[in-house]
Design the sequence.
């Protein structure tokens, strides 16, 4: 596990894990996502207890059908949980479940500043506590942009984590972040910026 050099400002803790999956598994997961192009649907934005499509805020496609990869990614996420709890100063908790989806970002796709967990929900639910994002993309890279941007608590500084195939980035689900716009000149789905996102719920 490694921490990237910190930008000036007070940031919530985060960690980066290069080559998080076995190389063959990472490539197979990416191939699965590309082959499932027709099954991707627009990703929504959750407002309170409702989800709606809002391209101005979030422009991305998502896939929830992961086949055997769901079990494998769940196991890997739970294996990482104790180390992340220690790194983030998070009290150990019994996980309710691990939510997983693969996201695809093409030309101009993005996700504006947000957090990954609900804080004002009217209905009791199992909140997201830990966010794990695994970058996936073809090599050579067919897009530019698409960094995860983390925001300092005072709002004055940011830190970008650029996409690198098989790099997993983890942070508390209440950490403010965004996905910066992607440029994908070819327009080919295989050239998109992909990410497998795992949320560990409490």
Sequence:
């Amino acid at each position: 596990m490694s921490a990237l050099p910190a930008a000036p400002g007070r940031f919530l803790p985060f960690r980066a894990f290069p080559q998080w999956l076995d190389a063959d598994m990472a490539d197979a997961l990416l191939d699965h996502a590309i082959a499932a192009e027709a099954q991707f649907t627009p990703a929504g934005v959750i407002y309170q207890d409702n989800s709606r499509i809002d391209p101005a805020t979030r422009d991305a496609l998502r896939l929830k059908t992961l086949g055997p990869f769901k079990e494998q990614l769940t196991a890997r996420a739970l294996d990482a949980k104790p180390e992340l709890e220690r790194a983030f100063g998070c009290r150990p908790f019994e996980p309710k479940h691990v939510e997983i989806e693969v996201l695809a970002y093409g030309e101009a796709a993005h996700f504006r500043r947000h957090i990954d967990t609900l804080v004002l929900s009217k209905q009791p639910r199992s909140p997201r506590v830990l966010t794990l994002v695994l970058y996936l993309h073809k090599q050579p890279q067919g897009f530019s942009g698409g960094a995860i941007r983390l925001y300092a608590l005072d709002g004055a500084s940011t830190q970008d984590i650029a996409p690198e195939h098989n790099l997993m980035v983890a942070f508390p689900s209440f950490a403010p972040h965004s996905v910066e716009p992607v440029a994908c000149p070819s327009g080919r789905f295989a050239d998109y910026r992909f990410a497998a996102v795992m949320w560990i719920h409490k």
Remarks:
- Residues 12-38+55-122+142-157+167-189 form a domain with the Jelly Rolls fold (CATH 2.60.120.620).
- The radius of gyration is 16 Å.
- The longest strand covers residues 97-105.
